[in-house]
Write a structure and sequence with these properties.
Length: 109
């Protein structure tokens, strides 16, 4: 192909949603994506969604805070782990309010 996905980003200038697991290594993953966007020399709003994990590791307690400090012009939202049956009525009822707040934060920025 004569084009790269980055060329589409440069042309359409969308805001981007980056979803990543909230665990050890996510800082590197998100920073690499953020640095790539900076190379496009266009301001592209970045929304970062950190997805909760079944077994949270210690880094998950600080990942969002660190990303907010290191990438100040982005939105960082944490979604809770919804369980293996995330689509079930019980899971939605159990997690609905937290999920609703997170989604409002995501789409209001």
């Amino acid at each position: 192909a004569d084009y790269h996905f980055g060329d589409l980003i440069k042309h359409f200038k969308p805001s981007l949603l980056l979803a990543a697991p909230n665990k050890l290594g996510v800082l590197n993953q998100v920073l690499l994506a953020s640095d790539y966007l900076k190379q496009t020399k266009k301001h592209i709003p970045l929304k970062i969604v950190l997805m909760g994990q079944k077994k949270a590791d210690p880094s998950s307690q600080s990942n969002a805070k660190v990303l907010r400090e290191w990438i100040p012009n982005s939105s960082v939202i944490e979604l809770p782990f919804m369980g293996p049956q995330a689509k079930s009525r019980a899971s939605i009822q159990k997690n609905g309010q937290r999920l609703n707040l997170a989604l409002k934060a995501l789409f209001s920025t």
